[in-house]
Write a structure and sequence with these properties.
The structure is a homodimer of 298-residue chains. Chain A has 298 residues and is α/β, with parallel strands linked by helices. Chain A has 11 helices and 18 strands. Chain A has a 7-stranded mixed beta sheet. A 7-stranded mixed beta sheet of chain A has the order 7-8-9-14-15-16-17. Chain A has a two-stranded antiparallel ribbon with strand order 10-13.
Amino acid sequence: MNFEVVFLGTSAAVPSATRAHAAIAIKYFNEIILFDCGEGTQRQLISSKTSYMKINHIFITHYHGDHFLGLPGLLQTMSLSDRTEPLTIYGPRGINDVLDAVIRICRTELSFEIIPREIKAGPVHVTDKFRIDAVKVDHSALTYGLVFEEVKKREFLREIAISLGVKPGPDFSRLHRGEEITVDGKTIRPDNVLGGEKKCKKVVYTSDTRPCQNIIDASKDAVLIHDSTYDGSMKDQAAEATHSTSIEAAEVAARGGAKKLFLIHISPRYSSTVELLKEAKTVFAATSVARDFQVYKP
Amino acid sequence: MNFEVVFLGTSAAVPSATRAHAAIAIKYFNEIILFDCGEGTQRQLISSKTSYMKINHIFITHYHGDHFLGLPGLLQTMSLSDRTEPLTIYGPRGINDVLDAVIRICRTELSFEIIPREIKAGPVHVTDKFRIDAVKVDHSALTYGLVFEEVKKREFLREIAISLGVKPGPDFSRLHRGEEITVDGKTIRPDNVLGGEKKCKKVVYTSDTRPCQNIIDASKDAVLIHDSTYDGSMKDQAAEATHSTSIEAAEVAARGGAKKLFLIHISPRYSSTVELLKEAKTVFAATSVARDFQVYKP
């Protein structure tokens, strides 16, 4: 496993027998990152054999209950499992107040530190392997969509490096990271051995939103995971509730040039999603309706 | 359906793929009463086709997260479904503080009133059809077991009533309720037409506890639903954690003269409960390990 998206909960505000409240795990090499944490997320993690102890970063997109009420129970279970690693929890303005309420309802001292971080538009969490950016979306509460993107890496021209006298091993990594090295008194610069940029994988999670330009702008070549609470005939209800229809989600994917679209936040009124999918596919062929426990490799 | 016990969650503090956190629905004629409300209870209710809108009384046995963290989400979903009926929530000392925390984390105004009621040992909720009494049990937090019992009714001697000139209909009900009536100027008293007490059904829910005398005293002829977090070989761990083993639960059922025993609060370490059940049955034959979604008619 290098990169997996695990759909833990794909329901709208009221869950169903087959769909739990919002949560997505991004597994990237040894890291597991959680996007939203609706009620029942700890059990969805256990059922999908996704280790909750490996989660060091949780992003809450907004403070409607179906997106964060799984936090108290998940934190308690981490604590019962004697976690000591700090946990960073990101959320829009008000994160300290929300985490105060979460910790208050836990009624117990946790075994680990929680680090609150406020989400604003722009880069939120940047590592040398990937970055997570937030984009403001259009929902009744202040809500951020999340863009997970691999750091762009240039292709390593192995044969040229060897021809310049560089030995495979740590020096390869240094050059690939952008550091100069010296071989037999001769300076080798990264530009000498790096070619064009490799294609990088990108996942965009809209959370709850109306169709919006920020998501269109972020979706080029991405796996787009988009709010699709209603079917196409319920456009007015979707606008009223600041959600999207399946057709609107597909239009965003098409206009943004997404690679693939997953529909989520499915209202419990749809016991079958056949029609929802069919109408979205007329606009954007590479559409799927996400299922709880579905694993996708971008 | 006149009387059903629906096991909604039968796990210990950490849930498993097959067992959710603590919750039991008591369906009695048109009423649905909830004993505990662990995380995920709203979804367990939906999956078991038990109407959350019909719940007017919720009893929280103690304030460990696995017994009440389903409250915020359940209240929000009731509110999303436009509930207006008030909801009474019972809990031990501190219920106001707990409900403040629950309402604070909801971050929204609910569409209905919540009536907090403090549980003390003794009668908690008494109607003309059934009563619920609380008994203090032995756990690390202040915890009450709950005894649901039908109101004792005397047998109605129909043929004697008719021979005294009473016509079948409302007069039968009045006499059965204990009211005198007059037929052709002649007074008929309940004692004239009522025989011995009918056998009444009783369900005892221990919640989390060590084996304790109060439960033994309450269990005569009851369906006993008893903490069984550990197997018989883990007696010391059970004592340390103030829980019970399957054998201890069976001993309580035997000593109390229970009619039937259900083991609950099963640790996720037991992916199979065959051994747990086998050893309990050596002490008390009428034992079952409760499963999520199991329905029992007392």
